[in-house]
Amino acid sequence: MVKVIVIGSGNVAQHLITAFQNAEKNESGISLIQVFARKRESLAALIPIQKVTNQFSELLEADLYIIAVSDDAIESVSSELLFKNRLVAHTSGSVPLTLLNNNNRKAVFYPLQSFTKGAAVDFKTIPLCLEAENSIDFQMLSKVGKLISDHATAINSQQRKALHVAAVFANNFSNHLYQIANDICKENQVPFSILKPLIQETAKKIVAIDPEQAQTGPAKRNDQITIDAHEAFIKDDNQLKIYKLLTQSIQHNGKKL
Amino acid sequence: MVKVIVIGSGNVAQHLITAFQNAEKNESGISLIQVFARKRESLAALIPIQKVTNQFSELLEADLYIIAVSDDAIESVSSELLFKNRLVAHTSGSVPLTLLNNNNRKAVFYPLQSFTKGAAVDFKTIPLCLEAENSIDFQMLSKVGKLISDHATAINSQQRKALHVAAVFANNFSNHLYQIANDICKENQVPFSILKPLIQETAKKIVAIDPEQAQTGPAKRNDQITIDAHEAFIKDDNQLKIYKLLTQSIQHNGKKL
């Protein structure tokens, strides 16, 4: 039986707790033996309260401790652990493995998904980026990872950094462009819902084809008449700046000008 | 029986031809009686060749003529029609209704989707933006539209212009951000496929929640340490410009600075 402890009570921690509890039900040989939360009652709906501790001194012995806290708390939380030479992972996309305290063996257990509180996700579909200091630790990490995700992959700190930057472009920034589209629709009394099928289709396309091949639109066609008309239409300075920069970038194929 | 003729042989024309042929099969009271294509043989795989003409003088009488050609050819093609006072629509998101020749009654029949040649689409799911000069013409347009799409909506030229600009942000620009993410992955030997579930999830989220509510990431959290680390990581000037501008825009909630 592989014994896991989750440290944290936020978004990622809660999704991990649910995923491990589901894995337990499937008798997969894993056990979430304990959770650490400063406010024990914050997890009352999720897990039997007697499994939750708020004392580092009460932490049981486990094969893997997963610190699922905010980036800036990882270092201090890892230094508060009172045991030594156990396997301790954080769940951050942007924090290096080396930030973890030297008292224990370091690892990363990073689920690449943006979790929304309360919104159920099928953890099995989420890519899990794993990193450890040696192959024995990696095997343990991988064993645990594969029990909750179908996409557990070895990713080192440098690759993880790249992934995190890439995810900001592909996801955070895309979502912001959806917001601008929504703003433009609102200003012009057009229901944003008309755009939703196209947004889904655009995202779906790149599962099968390279985004470079999938590119369409006036910038790609070098349709200057439409580009001029759009720039004349856009009244907001910030929107106009973004329109011009991304149009230019498409015309230069995303490469340095 | 409503008689429709499609003029054009490109991407949109081909998808319309397929959609109308499917509607015919369902005995919906619509008939695609003819197609105009300069090169008749280009449609040989799609429709019986005797239904295709390359002579404007041979065009039959129909209830609706749909000009599905590139934006810059709409005006000239509409002026080549030899009949008068019939209902003629174009399929463009960015061309005003008024650009059509005065000889006939003008309309717009704009499917809001980016079609990829050869890739099958369920036309029923595609939003169809309709505009006519009077309510009788609009009724005919709407009747035809509803036979091939479950989302036929009245959209005037000003709204259509807004939609087209919004679609460039939400789709063309998002796809370009996917490409940049792909480039960053490639440069760092990370498989882009790891990001694909997150991309789908980001697009799916905004079906249910407002993009403003769905926004996540370092810019939204004002996490300056991560933003600085990302900016230090990005080596390409163009990527860095985009990162900075969109980060700033998220921090100002997409409003003018």
Automatic annotation (TrEMBL), chains A, B:
Gene3D superfamilies: NAD(P)-binding Rossmann-like Domain, ProC-like, C-terminal domain. Residues 126-250 form the DUF2520 domain. Residues 3-88 form the Pyrroline-5-carboxylate reductase catalytic N-terminal domain. It holds the Pfam family DUF2520. It comes from the Bacteria. InterPro entries: 6-PGluconate_DH-like_C_sf (IPR008927), DUF2520 (IPR018931), NAD(P)-bd_dom_sf (IPR036291), P5C_Rdtase_cat_N (IPR028939), TM1727-like_C_sf (IPR037108). This is DUF2520 domain-containing protein.
